[in-house]
Design brief:
Elements: H1 4-20, E1 31-35, H2 41-49, E2 54-57, H3 60-73, E3 78-81, H4 90-94, E4 99-103, H5 106-115, E5 124-128, H6 142-155, E6 160-164, H7 173-186, E7 191-193, H8 200-205, E8 210-213, H9 215-218
Parallel strand pairs: 1-2, 1-8, 2-3, 3-4, 4-5, 5-6, 6-7
Length: 223
């Protein structure tokens, strides 16, 4: 059985140590978002028992099935949607997730704005930027990012607080983290969701405020 408590302690220690020596050491320590998609229930419960409170899910229905009972028991959990959101799942998502990190196109932003209100559980949003301009990947192209951010904030009145990215697998991630940081700085967005199990150390050096980690915490997930 994976020692999730030990894994979490090691990850948090590394996050702290890297942050302390980074250019961003005077900012808050980056948050650990546990990527819980497709993980066994016992691993989820062990991570909660170890003190983990922020979780990221990729699919809306899977998240609802997994977390509905747990969020009734543990009132302090924070759930983030970190996978692509289909427009027909917007209402469900706004009533379930605390943060949605993946606004990636105008049609989705408009649908969210139509359904978002003071009663929504979701309070804040991130925009996903396709920093590698990969055709198979979700996200706003970096060239369009500034205008899209402005559109979401000024025209749609959405509380956009940050940006999210997934660098290309075969490229140096640091240049993508720097690009995302520059876009965020230009648009006065304080939050950066970037870095996963294989590159979170670099992400922290470039100003990540949260890192999304699955396999390092839980072990390899089910196929």
């Amino acid at each position: 059985m994976e020692n999730i408590k030990k894994n979490r302690a090691l990850i948090l220690s590394k996050i702290n140590n890297i942050h302390k020596t980074s250019f961003f050491s005077k900012s808050n320590v980056p948050k650990l978002v546990a990527v819980s998609k497709k993980q066994d229930d016992y691993k989820i419960d062990l991570s909660i028992a170890s003190g983990q409170r922020i979780f990221g899910e990729n699919r809306v229905q899977e998240a609802i099935d997994r977390w509905t009972n747990r969020i009734e028991i543990h009132k302090d959990l924070e759930l983030r949607l970190i996978g692509q959101l289909q427009t027909n799942k917007v209402k469900q998502s706004l009533n379930f997730f605390h943060i949605i990190e993946t606004i990636d196109r105008e049609k989705l932003a408009i649908e969210i704005a139509k359904n978002f209100n003071v009663n929504s559980k979701t309070k804040n949003f991130y925009i996903q930027v396709n920093t590698g301009s990969e055709p198979q990947k979700s996200g706003i192209d970096p060239i369009q990012a500034d205008s899209f951010i402005k559109y979401c904030i000024e025209d749609l009145n959405l509380p956009i607080i940050g940006l999210m990215c997934i660098p290309p697998i075969n490229e140096e991630p640091s240049m993508h983290f720097l690009l995302l940081q520059n876009i965020a700085n230009r648009n006065n967005l304080p939050e950066l969701s970037m870095g996963m199990s294989n590159d979170y150390e670099d992400a922290i050096k470039f100003g990540a405020t949260s890192v999304r980690i699955g396999s390092l915490l839980f072990g390899e997930r089910k196929a």
